[in-house]
Each structure stands twice: as C-alpha cells, then as structure tokens.
C-alpha cells in the first residue's frame, strides 16, 4: 500500500500537483488548549514527539487562551470542534464528548491504577437516566490546595515552621506574631475575590459546603452553621488586621507580596510553586490546617484530555490522548505535578517536602465539588462569589444575613 501511495504521489507531482498530493496523504489532528507561555511550549513538544511517531500526521495546536470556554462552545455550536481538547467541566460538555470507557477497556497502554487516586472521578459523569456512569476524559494535570509559608518571615520572627496536623488556631497564633504594622507586613493573605470552586476547601474543612448532596439545595449549606463558623473565623483575621486582603486589583499581587516579605502565609495551588521557583524565594508548603477538630479537606483541580463526539478520526484522536498520558509525555510536563504515580516515584516527588503535601491533600477530598453535583451550578456560582466578596469587604461582625440572602438567590438559579 505504501508503494502504491508513493507511485500515486509521484504521478501527481509529474502533473504539478505535489502540494495537493501531500495534503491528501497527511492527517490533521486539531488539539485545543487553554494554556499559554511555557505550558503551551511543552504541549507543542509533546505534539512534535507524537508527530515523529506518526509520519504523515500534523497536530494543529489551537491555543484559545482566556476565552477558552466561549471559543470551544462556539466551535461545537458550528459543528466544527477540535478533535481533542483540554477539559475540566465535563457535566457542561458531556453531550458533545465521546465516552472513553470502551477505549480504556481495550487499550492496555493506559493503566488506570497508575494514576493518582481520585482523578478519574472528575471526568466521570452520569447519563441522563442517572444509572450509568461514563468516563469522558483522561487526566493530564492536577493540583490541590496547600498553605505556602515564607521562610524568611518565619526565621526573622523566630517562629518554627508550620507542621502537618496543625490547626487554624495555630495559623492564627502564628499570623499574629508575624504581623508587622510598621512595615505593613501581614501574617496571612486572604483572597477576598476567590474562584468559588477553590473556596470550597475552606467550607469543607469546617464541615460545610456550598451545595447539598441532592444537587439543588443551597440553603442550609452555604448558610449552614459550619459554613458560617468558617466565614466568621476568616473575617476575624481581617478585623484583627493580621490578614491582608488579596484579589482586589489594588496592587496587592499575592506573588509580589509574598516574595517581598509582606505576606507570611497564603493558600494556593501548584502553579504558585513554579512562580516562586523563578523568583528564587525561600518557601515551604504544608497541608491545610484543621478547623475545630475536623480533618482538613482540599478541592482538587483536574485537567483532562477529551475527544469530540463529532471527530472524524477518533482512532487517531485516541492515540494522541494515550500518548499525552504516557510516562514519556508526563515527564515532559515539568511544570505540572505528574498524574502518574510511577513518574512521581521515579522523580522522588512524593518524598519532596515542597511537593508531597499536594499529593496528601488530594487524598483528603471526601466531598464532591458543586459542579459535579449539578451541571447548572455555573448559573449559581456568581451569586456565591458576590456573597463572599460582600462578607469580607464589608467586614461586618455578623455575615449570616449576607449568606442567607445568597443561599436563597443561588438556589433559585438551580430550580
């Protein structure tokens, strides 16, 4: 067959149609990503390695950037989606994605037991009948939430570094001792305009949540006693002036404040460690503190590769997804935490004090994120974000009324 194709191409070239022949013999695989900068360069290297193993295949990178969801939705609406794409909100896109259960079942190249436990649940969605759970993506990256601490500020204050098993009472005590009014340095940095998804870590650790297990009840959860207790504790840190407000767009960039010794502790994910490594900053990480004797829980953010149901070359798309999940590609993604346990072990990351807490916090998550409980959650989350801002910016002693109103309004969005 290869000989016949070569003869055909030669004959076409004799008639001046070499370019058309090359196009006819090649396959174009479209891959959409939300990443840019160094992450995009890494993905381009992975695509090049895939092309080298698949002569005649060209991977077209489509970097949608900040408008990712809008551009991806438009592509699906126009019946012209990319073959493979980065995905996180599987309930929202489930109807236009290809189920991957059969591919995974018959492809021994992917060992699901080698993936960090729990990651596949983020790409698993129930059918409309509520009986069948299907997998729509293969994990590519993840992060949990941890507390970063500024070693220089702790050393100058003569304080021991935070240790696993600590509590919010410990954090508050340390934050008070780290506060330096004369230099406008704070013991803790609190994002008062957070992504509601990330803020779930605070509420879960208190025994609260934003959305009930039934997927529709917000009242009694967002404004329940455990959630209100966590809000009150965080609000007290602001009222006592031991916590800085971050996320307001007022110049208080958390990276700058941390590296310039203006904030001693803050909550963030794995991407922040890459930024700090670039700055050469001395820092440490530790798991989230417990609250009122309850074990801490962190949200886990998972990116995965999915396939468009309308793709005309599903076998090739699956090969790309498989390669992207291989040990070779995972090792190339140096700015991501490895999703494969074998790669993490080979690199000694699970023994690295700057990485180990992320893997430990993945195991802490027992709750289910709101968007996995209800595909319409995105309608309600802006209400929740506004309520969080109002509580922290008003600095009222009693935030209960704000949360009560928000719970009613958010629940209406889901019914």
TrEMBL record:
<feature type="signal peptide">
    <location>
        <begin position="1"/>
        <end position="23"/>
    </location>
</feature>
<protein>
    <submittedName>
        <fullName>Sugar ABC transporter substrate-binding protein</fullName>
    </submittedName>
</protein>
<comment type="similarity">
    <text>Belongs to the bacterial solute-binding protein 1 family.</text>
</comment>
<dbReference type="InterPro" id="IPR006059">
    <property type="entry name" value="SBP"/>
</dbReference>
<keyword id="KW-0732">Signal</keyword>
<dbReference type="Pfam" id="PF01547">
    <property type="entry name" value="SBP_bac_1"/>
</dbReference>
<dbReference type="InterPro" id="IPR050490">
    <property type="entry name" value="Bact_solute-bd_prot1"/>
</dbReference>
